[in-house]
Design a protein that fits this description.
By secondary structure, the chain is an all-alpha fold. Helix content is 59%, strand content 0%.
Length: 181
Amino acid sequence: MAVKPLFIADMAALEAAMRLTGVPTVSDAKTIIDEGVLQARMSFVKALTQTRVNTLKGYAYTDDPSTDEENLRMIANLTESMLVRLHLMRTLPVLFMDSAEKDEQAWNEEGLFRNKSPFDLEHEKNALKADIRDNLALLIGEDEMGQLSDLKITTMEPEVTPPRPGDSVWGRRSSVFGGTD
């Protein structure tokens, strides 16, 4: 059974969006990509219901959307790509860590996760989850197009007092008023 994306035109377009066009047709990596597509499909059905998914699939897809329906279809396409990418971020690195030398070479050629630190990967996962959540709210109809769903504010102050010289050797020192700073 060939796995097909829900909103994206075909697997070739999805793999191109993931920068994974060089994955052999018969491989463990291809199986993981197919599983990611199936998980994305189920995520849409769980979040939106099959009726809403069918409605979104009925909207015309265009690379230059000009109506709300076309914009929703574009958001569905992008969200499917994000869901598959999130699945691959969890599973694809494990395949290449556990595999033989030839698979390690394939890992280096694929580029999706090449030269990423664990911090970078975790940051990317959190950003993807936030984008997916916002997009699903639009697709469900909880949020309206053109409105902010969420306001994010950042302060530039440190959350904790930075360590002073010598703290790593002697531990946190007491302040002159008792307690630690």
